[in-house]
Amino acid sequence: MARISVFGIGYTGTVSAACLAEQGHEVIAVDIDPAKVEAINTGESPIVEEGLAALVSENRKAGRLSATTNIGSAVTESDISIVCVGTPSEPSGAIGLSQVFALCTSIGNAIANKPGFHSVVMRSTLVPGTMETVCVPELERASGLVAGKTFGVGYFPEFLREGSAIKDYFEPCLVVYGALDEVTQSMLAGLNVAFSAEHHAVDMKTAEMIKYTSNSWRAAKITFANEIGNIAKSVGVDGQKVMKILCSDDKISMSPYFLRPGFAFGGSCLPKDVRALRFLANENQVGAPLLDGIMAANENQVARAEALVKKFEGRTVGMVGISFKPATDDLRESPLAALAQRLTAAGYTIKIYDPFVKSAFDDKMAGAGRGNDRVEDLEEKLVADINALIALSDIIVVGHHYEEAVGPLSAIIGQKPMVDLTRVKPGNVSGEAYEGICW
Ligand SMILES: NC(=O)c1ccc[n+]([C@@H]2O[C@H](COP(=O)([O-])OP(=O)(O)OC[C@H]3O[C@@H](n4cnc5c(N)ncnc54)[C@H](O)[C@@H]3O)[C@@H](O)[C@H]2O)c1
Question: What separation in Å is there between the alpha carbon of 100 and the centre of ligand 1?
């Protein structure tokens, strides 16, 4: 069992401290507010949360939980500090780091005087990069020690929900953590050993991003459901019934398939139907700001791809894919065609490898080039062979994943400028001569 100091006796800190003590650890809770410290020491919870009062009382009686305002003694008498102080919004919307920064200074000063290794783990919600650019430098400055070597550092986001926080603690939806050093990493693994949820041991910045993604995703889902509910009501339909039925479909509607960052959507249905629903919402005076944002964000993704192409030297762009999605010759509202149009307008010469669009032309199908209102002389731009496309082009844009193209494209990564909208090689990230749109 570990000796743990938990900083911040608020919602997160009290639940963490009481639950860690319940697991058998020796826990010292620390706060600048003497009233909260006194509450813990008299066996009372300083906040309202189902089951927490009993947990605090029992663990206080068992001698596993105590509280103090003395940061120095809490650090000396523990092996790991878990920080749960607040990160409220600044008036600008930026994250407020004053509590976190002050505590990094105090804990840094305390570990400077402590013999032996100490780990500092942040549980407060921190925007990606905060550990690296704020916490670690301040802890190092204040302690005179080296993070990851002479003291440990980790980030361990909390996913509990107020109201069901204790249940969420013991049955976590996600276990994510990252550390600079093996001692802290294995301590974090040890603290989570009893939980059956998969452990995601990642770098600290990824852990920071996952926490924000989780909260923003939840907020987006709530807002989407509300917007649909408002529109449904405006046409005399029960919005809750609509969303309940939609949520019963895990093949498409709730599938993770559409939650993979990449390029814009297009085609004959999604853009026109989002537009029509927005129109209906505005006509019925309920508004649809999230649907409005979807269209703007989708256009932004095309502009982003164009900007990535423009980072490279060269005037001939070879596009892998031009139809709205792989394995079809349908070009209606294809975002790749929109990208080709923007690049042509910017003076680039476009060559295209798209076996489905090409075969429609080669076979003289009546619908060849269906829906193309953006790419002039499309048929002339088509190239039959992926290797020929690569040879003809200064810059490659990978819009679709075609199995036969993976080998030749993988072979030129880092050799020839490439903007990758699909991720030809799993795990590959942007580097010299290679720009992945979201990686
Ligand atoms: N509340 C939630 O449900 C929840 C869930 C997951 C993550 N989080 C994140 O956890 C963090 C804490 O949130 P919260 O709701 O528990 O905040 P809170 O405001 O309830 O608690 C923060 C506590 O930190 C104390 N504090 C401030 N400076 C201190 C210092 N220098 N030393 C010791 N104690 C200090 C405050 O007195 C307060 O008691 C935030 O980053 C939040 O985003 C919150």
Answer: 9
Domains of the chain from N-terminus onward: 3-209 (3.40.50.720), 302-436 (3.40.50.720)
DSSP 65: E
Is residue 19 annotated as a catalytic residue, yes or no?
A: no
Q: Give residue 81 CA to ligand 1 midpoint distance, Å.
A: 14
pLDDT at 31: 98
Q: What are phi and psi of 378, to 5 degrees?
A: -55, -45
156 ligand 1 Cβ < 6 A: no
Task: Give me the DSSP letters along 212-242.
Answer: HHHHHHHHHHHHHHHHHHHHHHHTT--HHHH
Does the model's pTM come out above 0.90? yes
Of the candidates 7, 26, 39, the one whose C-alpha atom is nearest the C-alpha of residue 124 is 7
424, 401 Cβ separation under 8 angstroms = yes
Q: What is the dihedral of CA 214, 216, 220, 222, to 10 degrees?
A: 70
Best probe residue, ligand 1, of 85, 89, 106, 107 (max atoms within 8 Å of C-beta):
85
CA atoms within a 13 Å half-sphere pointing along the CA-CB vector of 148 = 12
Mapped onto helix, strand or coil, the DSSP state of residue 350 is strand
Q: How confident is the model at residue 370 (pLDDT cuts 50, 70, 90)?
A: confident
DSSP 77: T
Going by the DSSP 8-state scheme, the letter that residue 172 receives in this structure is -
Largest CA distance in the chain: 84
* SS3 (DSSP) at 40: helix
Cβ-count burial of 241 within 10 angstroms (0-12 exposed, 13-18 middle, 19+ buried)?
exposed
Q: What is the per-residue pLDDT across 61-85, written as a single tens digit (0 to 9) for each?
A: 999 999 999 999 999 999 999 999 9
